[in-house]
Design goal:
Length: 179
């Protein structure tokens, strides 16, 4: 069946023509079912999704426009989206309650947390060794993400001066951290 014929059937479905709907189902059902089955990988779920697809087609046929794209692509998009929705709606199945406890914690372990806190304290101590305005500039540049130009404007200094401040401040911080 050609795209024009499918578009014509969709147009007739939009007018509530049940015979056109049956013809549309007969012509496009196998293709849309294969899309659902490929995504869901379960025949029963694919059949249920296909039913939802045709309910949606019946309800949304008026929104189809020949100028917006091919009729086959429109139908395939509905089948794909319904199948993905069904896939997302699946609830994870746990065989036993104990399997939940086997999930790995993605957060840092206590040792890593301690190391991170120690490094944070060292950085804070080293930042105190910088001149106050240089320390503020470093924080705004590397923590808040301000650009060199924004910092130069805020501190009322030329752009190259700001670059020099930051470069020298980073060198001092590196020296301090290596001690």
């Amino acid at each position: 069946m050609q795209g024009d014929e499918i578009a014509d059937l969709i147009g007739r479905v939009a007018l509530g023509d049940r015979r056109a709907f049956v013809a549309l189902y007969n012509q496009t059902g196998p293709k849309l079912f294969s899309i659902c089955l490929r995504i869901l990988k379960d025949r029963t779920e694919a059949e249920e999704a296909l039913q939802e697809v045709y309910i949606s087609i019946w309800q949304r046929a008026r929104s189809f426009s020949v100028s917006s794209g091919s009729s086959s692509a429109w139908l395939a998009a509905i089948a794909r989206n319904r199948s993905i929705d069904a896939l997302r709606a699946r609830k994870p199945v746990a065989d036993e309650l104990d399997t939940v406890y086997d999930l790995a914690d993605a957060g840092p372990d206590p040792e890593m947390q301690t190391v991170t806190k120690d490094e944070g304290r060292r950085i804070d101590t080293c930042m105190e060794e910088l001149e106050a305005d240089r320390a503020v500039a470093v924080k705004r540049a590397y923590v808040e993400g301000l650009s060199y130009q924004e910092l130069a404007d805020q501190f009322g200094v030329p752009l190259n001066t700001m670059r020099t401040w930051l470069r020298r401040s980073l060198l001092k911080l590196r020296e301090c951290m290596e001690r």
